Amino acid sequence: MRAFVGLEPDATTKLAIENWRSKVLPPFNQIVPAANYHITLAFLGQINLDQQDRLEQHIQLIDGITEFQVHLDILGYWPKPKALWLGCSQPAKFHLELVKTLTSAAHSANIIMQKRDYQAHLTLARKCSSNPPAPLIAPDFTWRACAFHLYESISTANGVNYAIKKTWQLPPVIKARSLTS
Helix 93-108 and helix 49-60: axis angle, to 10°? Predict the structure, then answer.
């Protein structure tokens, strides 16, 4: 299966992003539907069942990474894939640690990954003929990442669908109690 590990915004955030996109950006030929919004943590490519099983075993061992805030506050464009995206100017510490840990887990499961610098991003549109002008209202979307998922990328006649195959919960942040309370 063609797979990746990623974060999914909550429904409220998905709708807010979709509403913002339709109001402040020009129309695009190939928008990404809100149902497909995600932030890839580790793109795995084609994996077999043995690799998937080993990856899941390694992911079960992840420790010390708690839930974290995702703040999408920049708009970007990649000319080669012609993709328009929202990104994080300052990804959370645990976000970056999760990316690093998942990359290590994938290597341990004998999954060969492309070496790329990580840019946390959520794709808004594909096959954009050019970079659109800057929006009058800057992006500013935040949600709490409480889980991450193994997705299967399924090509259909109507485009790509992303099916969640497995979910891992991130433990909540434990706040220290004040000694005076």
Answer: 140
